[in-house]
Design a protein that fits this description.
Layout lengths: L45 E6 L13 E10 L5 E4 L9 E4 L7 H6 L8 E6 L21 E11 L5 H7 L6 E2 L1 H15 L7 H13 L7 E2 H4 L8
Antiparallel strand pairs: 1-5, 2-3, 2-4, 2-6, 5-6, 7-8
Helix pairs in contact: 3-4
């Protein structure tokens, strides 16, 4: 609701950074906030396509996992408040589209975008940081934002049927602690990053805390598929 302080999400911890965990949220900005006035119409976001590749497939949709670089500017004076190329050793950012991991305006602006496409988008305050602004990100109150975005990849999102079935080894349509533990071990081995021995147990506990809503020790298809863009 208008006038409330936007909720902020903390950045992923070091133990999970760089790991494509299917059950952990990723953040686009350092601490993205919920937009105020979320009922604003999609046409309030202005989209200018700077480059469109000849082969435009697949197009992004809600729930897809995107990989992109972007620069953020204040429309008032053109000053840059964010550049993804100066963060995380310059690696493009991964995030899930359309589920509130980024400001509402970016969720709208990056729909139906294809790999290799570049866009310049203008986002009004109501779909960005609203009346409060975001002091930590050097964004003043009631700021209109401009983003220049280059999209690199559009992948099946973390809550897709394929992702669920990949973890659900016994096919019983629910994820046990053993299944998710095994999945984490496989992902750790695949990305080859060094982690503290306690990282596995901490991430496993966090996954169940955030997803096992009925506390039965399993993550059901319904609990897992919170984005509702596929049917199990």
């Amino acid at each position: 609701a208008a006038g409330t302080v936007p909720r902020r999400r903390a950045p992923a911890s070091d133990m999970g950074r760089g790991l494509p965990l299917l059950l952990l949220p990723l953040a686009l900005l350092a601490a993205p906030a919920r937009a105020e006035g979320g009922t604003a119409a999609a046409e309030e976001v202005q989209i200018e396509v700077l480059h469109l590749p000849e082969a435009c497939s697949p197009k992004s949709k809600k729930g897809d996992l995107l990989n992109a670089h972007y620069d953020g500017f204040l429309a008032s004076d053109g000053s840059k408040f964010y550049c993804s190329r100066t963060q995380n050793e310059g690696h493009p950012k991964w995030f899930v589209l359309g589920v509130g991991q980024v400001i509402k305006g970016l969720d709208i602006a990056m729909m139906n975008m294809c790999p290799g496409e570049k866009r310049k988008v203008t986002i009004p305050p109501s779909l960005a940081y609203g009346q409060q602004g975001y002091a930590q990100g050097k964004i003043p109150p009631n700021a209109t934002l401009i983003f220049e975005i280059e999209l690199y990849a559009v992948n099946k999102g973390p809550r897709s049927v394929e992702a669920f079935n990949q973890i659900d080894k016994d096919g019983d349509k629910k994820l046990s602690e053993l299944e998710i533990s095994q999945y984490l071990k496989e992902e750790f081995a695949r990305d080859g990053k060094k982690r503290h021995p306690s990282a596995h147990d901490e991430i496993l506990a966090d996954i169940f805390k955030k997803n096992d809503h009925d506390g039965d020790g399993f993550i059901s298809a319904k609990e897992y598929n919170v984005y509702q863009h596929d049917e199990l």
